[in-house]
Amino acid sequence: MNRAVLGATLANQRMNQTTSKKEAPHLLHALHSAASVIHTPLQASLSLGFEKDGVTTRLTERNHYGPLLVQKPFYPEGKEVCHVVIVHPPGGVAGGDELSISARVGASASAQITTPGASKWYKANGHVSHQQISIDVQAGGVLEWVPQETIFYDNADVIVDHRVNLEKDAVYIGCEILCFGRTAYGESFNNGQIRQRTRILRDGKMIWLEQIRLQGGSSAMKDSLALSGKTVCATLILTGKTLPQPLIDLARAETENISKGIGQIGISQFKSIVVIRYLGNSSEVARHVMLCAWSLFRPEILGRAAIVPRMWNT
């Protein structure tokens, strides 16, 4: 038990024995307030390694510290692709928590990483939360990083750094769906701060760099160059191959049909990087848009049919 909670519990027991009914509520409130200011940040790390063994990709490294781990690997599309689910038992990230995730994919190995549900970043309470993601994919390897939604509660203060190193013809596919405030509960992201940086390097050279810094309630939340007053933004990045224009045109038509003009969608190709964006107010629509684009582009890039991650259907 946390020392502050234990101390409050013992003091509460003594209080019940020695104070009057009239005094007890005031003392109890003071004790709970004193306990709540005690903050013990959580630190957790997870290191994963994947290697090709014949035709099978195996999870060969699985080291963790703290409440961050993976379930048993599974193979819903055959032995070539190893699927794992990252589990964070606390269910959310509190102010001051620090998470570190690293994944290494060996030559010609293929892996997909997802999460069992939405990630939640709680109110900061004066503490900054951090998450560092480091991905290394060797020649001919493939890593698909497809976590479910990320929800930033009002007053969250978060720094996320996402770095990807690719060798030669290695492939990285990454998806992020960001939700600002719990709109289902009438909450907006009026206070707090989100700082996120994504870097992708190939053979040591930067091929993609994106940084955002959003202040809750700021003009950027409504500016047309940022969120345009929307509460959900999603990005799908695919590297490794230049896609034919007819396929991109098809993806634009189908994703626009999903959003039905409610959200904004953009698909751009920069040499060997394709970026799909969604901006709107529905995480469900964002999910369908991302899955639609991924299902069209994955067979072209990886030569494999698109199988929706099992966790996304639960």
TrEMBL record:
<comment type="similarity">
    <text>Belongs to the UreD family.</text>
</comment>
<dbReference type="InterPro" id="IPR002669">
    <property type="entry name" value="UreD"/>
</dbReference>
<protein>
    <recommendedName>
        <fullName>Urease accessory protein UreD</fullName>
    </recommendedName>
</protein>
<dbReference type="GO" id="GO:0005737">
    <property type="term" value="C:cytoplasm"/>
</dbReference>
<keyword id="KW-0963">Cytoplasm</keyword>
<comment type="subunit">
    <text>UreD, UreF and UreG form a complex that acts as a GTP-hydrolysis-dependent molecular chaperone, activating the urease apoprotein by helping to assemble the nickel containing metallocenter of UreC. The UreE protein probably delivers the nickel.</text>
</comment>
<comment type="function">
    <text>Required for maturation of urease via the functional incorporation of the urease nickel metallocenter.</text>
</comment>
<dbReference type="GO" id="GO:0016151">
    <property type="term" value="F:nickel cation binding"/>
</dbReference>
<dbReference type="Pfam" id="PF01774">
    <property type="entry name" value="UreD"/>
</dbReference>
<keyword id="KW-0143">Chaperone</keyword>
<keyword id="KW-0996">Nickel insertion</keyword>
